[in-house]
């Protein structure tokens, strides 16, 4: 195996793009998820991955073979993401843009306006990779919206250390080498990251229960039945709408928001998909012409047989999931 890798490296250094793809393609999906974990944005992860591969192509002469190609690529990707995190130009929050609906007073304003969902269709082969001995998170938990959001509230270096150590399981010495720092610095950053991370206990829902809850949610949402929707919510249900900063906590507050939405005459059809290991739906607004216009994507977080969180994203994310911007009249 080593002689095969050495041959590919040699050919890639000589300008063979096929050899370079053979070296990097097996790691492409997991690197994309790694960039997404660190950045919280599907689009930013796409950009970071492309820059990572470009940096790797340009810097292949600097690869000394001591680490695996995979580890070397993680080093490049992590440092590329750190550069993005340290930049001041993350996407800002947007103003309220739902026509005909006056927003109720939010419980609070969210800080992670750039958050985007990740399609489950792209997770295959990306989160079932071999993990190091230090991993502390289930891979499904480490791609959940709650976890990704919590990561975004940590300082950049702490994000990198926690993902490398607790999610991917790199040893402290390996992480220190990846980040060009000391083992003591890694241990200190990890301790602070663990203390600062608002870890939410992952809820597991039986697939048959999930199917039943999701069916009830679709029926309630499409028929604008607020009472039926409220019956599905936990007492502390949480609703957010990045890049809109408005966040709502609690069953009554979320119910009031939905009542205002439906009370404005907005009616939707939902198209199922999955995001971040969770049920998700493209939302299509029914219009007088009969055409149904894509307005966004909802990700539903379950806790047993109840809905614990609803996250609404704008319609720019629909193409990530292969969903159209509009549906024809029925």
Automatic annotation (TrEMBL):
Is Transcription regulation among this UniProt entry's keywords? Answer: yes
Question: Per its UniProt record, what Pfam families does this chain match?
Answer: Sigma70_r2, Sigma70_r4_2, SnoaL_2
Signal sequence span is none
Checking CDD domains in the record gives:
Sigma70_r4 (cd06171)
List residues of the SnoaL-like domain. Answer: 214-307
InterPro entries (UniProt xref): ECF_Sigma-70_Domain (IPR052704), NTF2-like_dom_sf (IPR032710), RNA_pol_sigma-70_dom (IPR014284), RNA_pol_sigma-G_actinobac (IPR014305), RNA_pol_sigma70_r2 (IPR007627), RNA_pol_sigma70_r4_t2 (IPR013249), RNA_pol_sigma_r2 (IPR013325), RNA_pol_sigma_r3/r4-like (IPR013324)
The protein's UniProt keywords, in alphabetical order, are: Sigma factor, Transcription, Transcription regulation
Domain RNA polymerase sigma factor 70 region 4 type, first and last residues per copy:
145-195
Residue ranges of every copy of the RNA polymerase sigma-70 region domain listed in the record: 25-91
Q: How does it assemble?
A: Interacts transiently with the RNA polymerase catalytic core formed by RpoA, RpoB, RpoC and RpoZ (2 alpha, 1 beta, 1 beta' and 1 omega subunit) to form the RNA polymerase holoenzyme that can initiate transcription.
Q: Which family does it belong to?
A: Belongs to the sigma-70 factor family. ECF subfamily.
Which NCBIfam families would you find in this protein's record? PRK08241.1 (NF006089), sigma70-ECF (TIGR02937), SigX5 (TIGR02960)
Name used for this protein in its record: Sigma-70 family RNA polymerase sigma factor
Lineage, top ranks = Bacteria, Bacillati, Actinomycetota, Actinomycetes, Propionibacteriales
């Amino acid at each position: 195996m080593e002689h095969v890798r050495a041959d590919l490296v040699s050919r890639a250094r000589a300008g063979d793009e096929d050899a370079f793809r053979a070296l990097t393609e097996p790691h492409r999906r997991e690197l994309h998820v790694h960039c997404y974990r660190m950045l919280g944005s599907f689009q930013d992860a796409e950009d970071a991955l492309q820059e990572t591969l470009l940096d790797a192509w340009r810097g292949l002469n600097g690869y000394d073979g001591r680490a695996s190609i995979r580890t070397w690529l993680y080093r490049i990707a992590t440092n590329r993401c750190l550069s993005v995190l340290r930049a001041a130009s993350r996407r800002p929050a947007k103003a309220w843009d739902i026509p005909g609906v006056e927003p109720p007073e939010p419980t609070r304003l969210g800080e992670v306006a750039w958050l985007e969902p990740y399609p489950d269709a792209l997770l295959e082969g990306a989160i079932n990779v071999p993990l190091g001995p230090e991993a502390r998170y289930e891979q499904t938990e480490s791609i959940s919206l709650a976890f990704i959001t919590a990561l975004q509230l940590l300082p950049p270096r702490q994000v990198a250390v926690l993902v490398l150590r607790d999610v991917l399981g790199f040893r402290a010495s390996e992480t220190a080498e990846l980040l060009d720092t000391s083992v003591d610095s890694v241990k200190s950053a990890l301790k602070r990251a663990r203390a600062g991370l608002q870890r939410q206990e992952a809820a597991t829902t039986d697939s048959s229960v999930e199917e039943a809850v999701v069916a009830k949610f679709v029926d309630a949402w499409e028929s604008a039945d607020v009472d039926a929707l409220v019956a599905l919510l936990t007492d502390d249900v949480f609703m957010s709408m990045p890049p809109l900063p408005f966040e709502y906590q609690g069953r009554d507050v979320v119910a009031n928001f939905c009542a205002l939405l439906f009370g404005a005459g907005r009616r939707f059809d939902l198209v199922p998909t999955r995001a971040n290991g969770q049920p998700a739906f493209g939302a299509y607004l029914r219009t007088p012409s009969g055409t149904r216009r894509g307005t966004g994507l909802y990700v539903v977080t379950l806790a047993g047989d109840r809905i614990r969180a609803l996250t609404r994203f704008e319609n720019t994310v629909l193409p990530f999931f292969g969903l159209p911007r509009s549906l024809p009249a029925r």
